[in-house]
Amino acid sequence: MLERELKEAVIGSLARYPVVGLIGCRQVGKTTLAKIIAKAFRKRVVYLDIELPSDLSKLQEPELYLSQFTDHLVIIDEIQRMPALFPLIRALVDKKRVGGRFLVLGSASPQLIKDSSESLAGRIIYHELKPLNLNETNYDNLNTLWFRGGFPNSYLAEDSIDSFIWRESFIRTYLERDIPQLGIHIPSINLRRFWTMLAHMHGQLWNASKIASGLGLSAPTVRHYLDILEETFIVRQLQPYHFNIKKRLIKSPKVYIRDSGLLHALLTVKTFDDLQAHPVVGSSWEGFVIEQIAGILPENTPLHFYRTGAGAEVDLLVFDRKNRPIAIEIKYSLSPKAEKGFWMACEDLSCKKGFIVYPGKESYPIGRNIFALPVKELSKIAKEF
Length: 385
Description:
By secondary structure, the protein is of the alpha/beta class. It is 41% helix and 18% strand.
């Protein structure tokens, strides 16, 4: 079984907060992690899966049922199916406010789960479980993780065909079951077409008018679709960084399919060799590395890109513990070079340090405080935080 890095953070939060939210995409491993935590936890544990009719029936009188377990850790899985529980949980923890009362698991962001943030403000801390990252797998399996993505069932599949079949099934289930269960009524064929179009535009600037025109929908409708995919952890909107009103800055976000395996399934890329010959290979690698970096930095670290009308550009911009900018460029090449736009961006931003992340094996300087960095050494970026 793969060890998830988030485990200790969740256990630590349970010691301090009455309610901990473990959120993340469907099938990312939340239930497995919660059960591992339950075995290691000092309290007795009650586990409820709202998708099981037997557990759902126990909650017909939720206050009566949950009030029995004031000295237990109560784990509630797929809580987005029953958002009315949040006000009750607030009332219960206010009667006995100690750490580790509830661990709630959800496949949608707090913003999408109605009333959750407001109901439990000051009582809950959220942790997002992301797909597997390189620290949790094996650096020798870099290409497997990139190609198959980080969903455990896809990554650990017997072979590439089984992995692809699993991802196709995930996409269908997400469209036909998961979205309707959130109370969102969108024709699945429309959302599939939108999702596929995003895959073809992976890593590009968001252009609502262009996408709406291509799908025969309105711009507000495709904006709504994008928000849904973001709030269910399917896409990342990488926001531009603005700091100088005198410069002509790009204002639209760049959009990425967060899991590279889902990206490849949406594009019907079935083998690693097919990926190498596909036009998306460079942007796929870029998105994969961004997610790897997001996975090793402190939770909720802001991520940006930077681009100006004058040509300055950097793929990823983060700020270290002293709020100093670090520029990160991502290249799918064994001989990476920093382009003119990267140097312009470093000058604009007065970057303290910069990295060119690539799939090679050696780290070496490219310029003053600018280093070529193998993806296996991404921890060097994390040490800046």
